[in-house]
Amino acid sequence: MTLASNFATAIEEAWQRAQFVPGYIGELEFKALGLLAAAAPAGGVTVEIGSFKGKSTVALASMAATFGLGPVISIDPHTAPSVTDPLLAGQPSSFDDFLATLRGAGIESQVEVNRASSKDVAPGGNRSIRLLWIDGDHTYAGAKQDFELFSPFLVDGAIVAFHDALHEFEGPIRVFVEELLRSDSFGPAGFLHTIGWSQYRPRDGAAFRGARLRLARQAAKLIPFVEGGRPVKGLSKIRYKISRALIPHAVPSPSEWNAKIAPLLSGG
Known about the structure:
Layout: H1 7-18, H2 27-39, E1 45-49, H3 55-66, E2 72-75, H4 95-105, E3 111-114, E4 129-134, H5 140-150, E5 154-162, H6 170-181, E6 186-192, E7 195-200, H7 209-220, H8 223-226, H9 234-245, H10 254-261
Helix pairs in contact: 1-2, 1-3, 2-3, 3-4, 5-6, 6-7
């Protein structure tokens, strides 16, 4: 979809409400996520797997509220420590802070909160997914499970996005390359800062095969560095950063998105 003329103002206002919330998403990623939330098809819900203290939730729910989109389904057990967040050892659960973030941003009514693991939350009834934001378990098994659990509920034209696809984690980049970029069920695709995204296009995804596979060949070069979840250090880290720098991942301005990317999107 084409971004509305007031998108830049709306996402900046959302950032002002969220910028001091603790979390692992910076301003560029926050605004890129808001862009994807505003650009995804209007029909359906947004599913957020991994909410922590609610910083990314503000981006998603603010865009939904501003542009009259469906609710945001937040899924996070809010445990501390967790397998994927060992740095939280000794800290309390993030749940109370998460709820405080929703209240402070005025988005409580836009968010359906599920304090549970993704495997324990299944989309129900006819609730199709317009945007699937995967930012939970960053292991390969965890990221793959999240994608497999929720991808059957994608509406035609939905956007799937993985946080940290261009960070030193195996799960997001490997699942993005193997399950999206190499699949003819997906169409336009790219990276926005560290976010890997693609549009679900089961009817005509093959038309975008060439561009997807070119991007897949570039992105796949990162996988050997992070495979098995081992830390990237020393010379390997330098090589990883060089390979990553060669992958286009700039965040476009709203006008650039509307001119270059929106025309490729179904429903755009």
